[in-house]
Design a protein that fits this description.
single chain; 171 residues; mainly beta; 4-stranded antiparallel beta sheet
Length: 171
């Protein structure tokens, strides 16, 4: 889609070819790398796909759902996964490696900031809250919250100065 005019350019192309359920895609800013969660063979996985080569890499695989996002420059993947009553956030290089735990109990990862130093998430303890995790710092679980509305689907603008989200009274 042309970002300036909002029109489709060229034919639609199928990105994934398997029969598994694939969810929550996020793209690098250059459009060359895609990260999504998938359920293959009864297990959930975070999949990184480089579109130029159609190569896929399994970032992590567990029996629980993951919530992934790729950094805008395409170099790192953040994901959260339920572990008992907590939902930590992990960060790993897009080329692989050992994941580092960035937060002990934050929530569902939604996306990276444009600068690549913060991760936007929906708080695990209260779905009416949006948190912001600055890497290397304590998370801010109350970055955005409303006492009467549930807040869903947050997204940052391309410059990181604005946030869009859905608000519902039925939490």
């Amino acid at each position: 889609i042309d970002p300036d005019r909002g029109r489709v350019e060229g034919p639609l192309e199928r990105v994934t070819q398997d029969a598994a359920d694939d969810y929550d895609p996020t793209w690098s800013d250059d459009g060359g790398t895609l990260v999504y969660r998938s359920r293959r063979a009864g297990r959930f996985a975070v999949i990184l796909r480089r579109l130029a080569s159609t190569a896929e890499t399994v970032v992590t695989r567990m029996p629980e759902e993951h919530y992934p996002a790729i950094s805008r420059d395409g170099t790192r993947v953040a994901y959260s996964v339920p572990q008992g009553d907590k939902m930590p956030i992990f960060v790993v290089g897009a080329g692989g490696g050992t994941p580092e735990q960035a937060c002990d109990d934050c929530g569902e990862v939604k996306e990276w900031s444009p600068q690549g130093d913060q991760i936007l998430y929906v708080t695990a303890s209260d779905p009416s809250g949006i948190g912001l995790l600055k890497l290397g710092s304590s998370p801010n679980h109350t970055w955005l919250r409303h006492p009467g509305y549930g807040i869903y689907g947050p997204r940052l603008s391309s410059d990181g100065r604005w946030i869009a989200f859905n608000g519902r009274t039925d939490r």
